[in-house]
Amino acid sequence: MSTPDPDDAALRRLLADPAYLTLGLRDATARSTKALGLRHAVVYLVDIQQRRLVPQTAVAPALSVDGSLAGWAYRTQSLRVEESRTGGGITAWFPLLDGAERLGVLAVDECALTASSLTRGRALASLLAMVITSKRAYEDSFVLHTRTERMQLPAEMLRALLPPRTIGDGNVVSTAVLEPAYEIGGDAFDHSLTDTTLHVAVLDAMGHDLASGLTTTVSLAACRNARRTGLHLPELVRSVDEALSSWLPDKFCTAVIAQLDLVTGVLHWVNCGHPAPILIRDKRLIIDAMEHDTDPPMGMPSLLTSQPRRTHEIALEPGDRVLMYTDGVVEARTREAKLLGLERFADYVIRATAGGELAPESLRRLIHSILDAQEGRLRDDATLLMFEWRPPPKDGRPFPHPLPD
Asked: Do 176 and 168 meet the contact criterion of CB atoms below 8 Å apart?
């Protein structure tokens, strides 16, 4: 039998109660589920490497992202339904999303599903996603549920500064991954949005220790500070140069820093001694499209030359994806102990992006294919950031998005 449709009085009372804002996730889930007239719900958060979905209860087991229906809901960001494993009834898996960021999934158990219970399940998923987002910055319980091993100090320091893994709006999505997840030292990424612009950066500091983490931290902070005061790209990079030369004069950092005009699709970028970004168009790699001579790394090396920073420009087409990466990606080794190299890396990118998946899923599969080829151990930090421009079409018809499997 199905649960009778409740009125929304219980939910209104719950949300109006100031004590609701202080509830932990488990209690918030239980009370919200009851207020919406649903039988039972469990939150599963994805771990740092996006391989497992970890329940916020000790009773349920963790689930594989790649080998479960819950994982299918996470990968495709869509509803999935199966018979309940607890005996009788139905389990509906709802993706937990903070905007474009995938947080995990929500399992809702019901005797039977109706249009009303599905609507209430989606409402619960949206509500709990906001609860998770508001609390995970200061409640360590979220961290403990999403880590599978101890994090080293340089990684702890940098991850505290990183933005959400995925951001986006109706015009663009930007997504990034960083490995090794628990031992990183010198790599970092950044992305942010204004009404008109996507700002992205991938950084790689010299060395693989705490000092390299400090270099990246200063570079990231200087980049954000300049961006938020309205500086254009050459002046923004110059401010990072000056910050590093003042505070860490013996350190330097390579980077690609870019800005995408969300209306025109024009992309500007500065390359400071870094591997060139890759353009993906119509599921094909156009490797040379963004190849240019690079400027010196950020920091003291740039202040020793009188040459100004060069800004490059390219006009993107709707649906284009741009992939930025650090050299640890192409320096990875395959199972045959050969360097991955740009050609093999390009093949990985083609296969990972050819399936018509959403951008965050393409990038997740790409970094996992690289890790799995060398038994999960990288020789160097590896960061990938990919953004996709999907503007509203001029003829008013919706731009075709990748379809879930």
From this structure: no
